[in-house]
Amino acid sequence: MSGYLEGILVLLAVNVVFAYGAYLPLSAGQLNLGMAGFAALGAYSSAYMSNVLMFDPLLAIPVGGILAGLVALIVAVPILRTRGIYLALATFALGQVVQATILNLEVIGGAAGYPVTAFVRLPVVIIFSLVVVIFVWLLFATRFGLAVRAVHDDERVADLMGIEVRGFQIAAFVIGSCIAGIGGGLYAHHFSFIEAQYFNIALSITIVLYVLLGGTQTVLGPLVGAAVFTLLPEVLRASQHWRYVIFAAGIIVLMALRPQGMITGAQIRRLFDWRSPGQRNLVENREGGA
Question: Whole-model pTM above 0.70?
């Protein structure tokens, strides 16, 4: 496999992990613009553990994700008291604080960046990515997924149904931050160098766009969105000067035609529905009559 193809596949796998990190809070109705900050926490903490503490990368990467989740748990209580645009601004500020702090820490390279001695290859990155996808899929097949979706649809109704709204919002925020930290650790240990400037607000917005493009109604949405954002610019590489113009125009058209995202819950149910068209129509008519 060529180095170029391997690099693209690694970016795809890391972006998928990032996308599921953003999917958790979005599924609970939270717009988290601090995803890059949690990715940076996971990247730098795991890199420090493998460089200085001599941790194996397979251990340092998930531990870095857990540390990012612990920071998220500490800040979740005050931050999640805000709503809407104020929550977005609060998480944006958090990401900026993390980036500025890293820039001033000479122990991890500061503004010059931080080399990572340990290295993980493509198969390891793909395995981590698959584990994250399966974990989120199974998580949303439990009561947690039902409760989070109920909170997303209407917090007041969910509260009346006996769902601990704030608890599930915090859980979604923390688990998503853990996953983003794992993505940062994978990025650090494959590309062998990290710098704080990479983990900026543009990265946070792009990660959120993965989910919005793919769709928030189903667990497959982030996977599809990350794949489109990662692979489409490479497909358009032949038109060197215009590829990002074409890419951006295509995203605008797609979002105008599919504001709910590329993959919806109804599409997934229809895809895996074993019943005949007549049976499906009969059930839909009964539900409509009810």
Answer: yes
